[in-house]
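Write out this protein's structure.
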Amino acid sequence: MTLQECKLKETVVVSYIEDCEMKRRLLDLGFVKGASVTPVLNSPSKGMRAYLIKGCKIGIRNSESRYIQVIKEE
């Protein structure tokens, strides 16, 4: 499943980032394999989301979050 498909407040773990022009930026923001991520807020336009990752809230567009593959945290 992709990060874009996760429900709000559902904690997931990054498993893979697909090759894309944003991959380096996503890695720099902390979206690395094994990192726990929780979607915490949708934008009013529904085009972006804020994610809690490594103690920080980071907003990324849905078009970027579809490249991040995740699994549910156990």
